[in-house]
Amino acid sequence: DPFGWTAQGIETIDVDVEEGDFGLDRIEQLVKQHEVSRFVVGYPKNMNNTIGPRGEASAAYAEMLKERFHLPVELWDERLSTVAAERTLLEADVSRKKRAKVIDKMAAVMILQGYLDFKN
User: Fold this and answer.
1) For range 16-40, the mean pLDDT
2) Which of 4, 85, 88, 95 could form a disulfide with 106 if both were Cys (CB 3.0 to 4.6 A apart)?
């Protein structure tokens, strides 16, 4: 939101690494539409706090965003965000089919909300 208090899910952008499509054109549209001033990228650390291949890929994506948009990019620990999102959707009695469609967006909202809560 404009005050930076609550995270809002907008959409899930498909990425095709093999095709070299990282969704940057769509992100550019969203940056302009929503007057984005910074990015928060989920940083999947291992439970022992080490960084594995997915974490390295997230850090590389963060660098790609910095280079393309010249905006600050924060890496934010996303451990257990998908588990928390799944739990929330289960508690809301969302069907398995519907959960599969929204789990990534919900996890992203939880990552962003954790960042906003920490910063505020």
Assistant:
1) 94
2) 85
Cβ-based neighbour number of residue 6 at 10 Å = 11
Helix, coil or strand: residue 1: coil
Question: For residue range 56-74, what is the model confidence (pLDDT) as tens digits?
Answer: 999 999 999 999 999 999 9
Helix (H, G, I), strand (E, B) or coil at 21: strand
Q: Are 84 and 113 in contact (CB under 8 A)?
A: no
Q: Which residue, chain included where needed, has tokens 């919900």?
A: 106
Tokens at 108, concatenated: 């992203």
3-state secondary structure of 11: coil
Token readout for 37 is 């001033």
Return the closest-CA partner of residue 9 out of 85, 118, 60, 94.
85
For the cut 80, the answer to whether the pLDDT of residue 90 exceeds it is: no
